[in-house]
Design brief:
The structure is a homodimer. Chain A is an alpha/beta fold. Helices cover 44% and strands 21% of the residues of chain A. Chain A has one domain: Maf protein (Alpha-Beta Complex). Chain A starts with a helix and ends with a helix.
């Protein structure tokens, strides 16, 4: 994927580092980000926070927020990205949470995904709705996260 | 992948939980493990320890061992699996470290991979050498980790 290569090159040229917190995509975003040789200069790691426990343990999300949202909300994505950035001590962090299906999570139907990007200055969160099979939705969400990163970071 | 589904079903039936520490595969193993709906009952999460810093920070690997090995050795895989199991408080943990290429890591040529599986009773570590492109080697390593888990856990 040309976009991933460009993103990694750009971050490397600017000496910027990146980390990730992934829930519904289960590691696919990290897999994409590490496809390019030399990505280790930029990408420091990720946590696949596939349980509420992991979201709480690694990124200190309040138990009450996790119980209310079952881990899927704009606020969860925002806090994951912000705290991921601090935990990994990276310049940028990206997070993905959502309902991969087959069941809805609270009021969110399968395919509903929140993607957040945190820098020292600002955190943005975007909501998307993907369609298709579980696998297609998960892959689309990971690819869209690359797109969100590029929109923030590439000229 | 039928094997993944069988593995998740088996672990769920036995009420066993699983976590992962991935280096060279960059999240692809976690992506495979979470392909099956309901995998969240079994798979609690993973850390993509794509830097020496992450291996030290999340799983307490000695700095001296990481510097000597550059993160690729039987002992690194063993400690990652054992400490991943403790960190996630899961019954089983699997780890993958290796040289994804294009460069060798110390004496290990691209394609050299160590896979470890830790339970409360025992930790096993296996060495593999994969051939092909960077992507093919990474995918093969993640799939082989599923195979190692199945060999340990399926009847």
């Amino acid at each position: 994927m040309v976009l991933i290569k460009r993103l990694i090159q750009k971050l490397r040229a600017k000496s910027l580092t990146l980390s990730a917190a992934e829930s519904c995509t289960g590691g696919y975003l990290s897999y994409l980000l590490t496809q390019t040789p030399g990505s280790s200069h930029v990408f420091k790691g990720a946590v696949v926070v596939y349980s509420l426990q992991a979201k709480q343990q690694f990124f200190f999300l309040p138990k009450s927020l996790l119980e209310t949202t079952q881990g899927v909300s704009k606020q969860v994505a925002r806090l994951l990205a912000q705290n991921c950035r601090k935990t990994f001590k990276t310049d940028i962090a990206v997070s993905i949470v959502g309902a991969a299906g087959p069941e809805s999570v609270k009021t969110f139907k399968p395919g509903t995904v929140f993607i957040a990007v945190a820098t020292s200055k600002k955190t943005i969160v975007k909501k998307f709705i993907f369609k298709g099979t579980r696998d297609a939705m998960r892959k689309a969400a990971a690819k869209r996260a690359i797109g969100v990163l590029c929109a923030r970071l590439l000229p």
